[in-house]
Design brief:
The chain is of the alpha/beta class. The protein is built from 14 helices and 6 strands. Helix content is 43%, strand content 9%. Bound molecules: adenosine-3'-5'-diphosphate. Its EC number is 2.8.2.-.
Length: 292
């Protein structure tokens, strides 16, 4: 018998599941270090891709053993993750022996442990257009048994528009982090669509933000290595060892495209979504592309 799917509840104004809140005392009091790098995203925005690139930028020369022996979710711990019978994200982060430590989070900006701000850590935020993000999240919730039951696509999409998802509303998440960027110079805000369009250019921007002096040859090697087809084949990056995921339902490395939403949204769903989108994103300077 499969254990029941977790359900959402209100956590400081954000829908969450117990998996991401059970360790809250340790998360809240997490001690960041000044050189920690926080990779923050709404779920399914390209977290693994950027984590993989950062890990290679920092450690491909000095710690190649990491890439061949440690799954990405151990190299880059997921801060608020607390699955039964697994080490918590905070424990994994505290046991990292690297400098910097790369740490992943899906928390909305207002729930980030204050130590990251006090220590003035660098933050890399990745956002993805709302429609592709919804599609990716839907397929992920179908295959990951510790995510809430997604229901059918239509009901999932309604819930997504209403922000009834783990980690809350896409709209609040991407705009909340965008606003923080205006006052926090150490926040690099990236877009999934830009990464797909020109990964090399985005790696260059990451290097300038992080103050890295990787050579052109190293960056080109990382660009090639981090292309979708390579990461999909890499058992240390494709989550094939994650027992809570059922790849027969949908693989973790699913399509990696911009515009897959067109294969899912009906004309009516698209019209309704656009209307909601314009209402919710009316007051922001943040713009997304839904095709490249
Ligand atoms: P799709 O479901 O649309 O394929 P996250 O890591 O935040 O969970 O995001 C997962 C999404 O990023 C998935 O999207 C996955 O395929 C995509 N992705 C991961 N690595 C990628 C890469 N190298 N290139 C393009 N997309 C990638």
């Amino acid at each position: 018998m499969k254990p029941p799917r977790p359900t959402l509840f209100d956590f400081h104004g954000v829908p969450m599941t117990h998996i991401f809140t059970d360790d809250w005392e340790n998360i809240k009091h997490f001690q960041a270090r000044p050189d920690d790098i926080l990779i923050a995203t709404y779920p399914k925005a390209g977290t693994t891709w950027v984590s993989y690139i950062l890990d290679l930028l920092y450690f491909s020369q000095t710690r190649p053993d990491r890439q061949t022996s440690m799954p990405i979710y151990e190299r880059v711990p997921f801060l608020e993750n607390k699955k039964p019978n697994h080490p918590s994200g905070t424990d994994l982060a505290n046991s990292l022996d690297t400098s910097p430590r790369l740490i992943k989070t899906h928390l909305p900006v207002q729930l980030i442990p204050k130590s990251f701000w006090e220590q003035k850590c660098r933050v890399v935020y990745v956002a993805r257009n709302a429609k592709d993000n919804a599609v990716s999240y839907f397929h992920f919730n179908r295959m990951d048994s510790v995510q809430p039951e997604p229901g059918d696509w239509n009901s999932f999409l309604q819930n997504y528009m209403e922000g009834q998802m783990a980690f809350g509303s896409w709209f609040d998440h991407v705009t909340g982090w965008w606003e923080r960027k205006q006052s926090h110079p150490k926040l690099h805000y990236m877009l999934f669509e830009d990464m797909v369009e020109d990964t090399g250019r985005e790696i260059d921007k990451l290097c300038s933000f992080l103050g890295l002096t990787s050579t052109a040859a190293e960056k080109e090697q990382i660009r090639r290595q981090s292309q979708f087809d390579n990461m999909k084949k890499d058992d240390m990056a494709n989550y094939s060892s994650a027992i809570v995921m059922d790849f027969k339902i949908s693989p973790f490395m699913r399509k990696g495209k911009v515009g897959d939403w067109k294969n899912h949204f009906t004309v009516a769903q698209n019209e309704q979504f656009d209307e909601e989108y314009h209402k919710k994103m009316n007051n922001t300077t943040l713009h997304f592309r839904t095709e490249v």
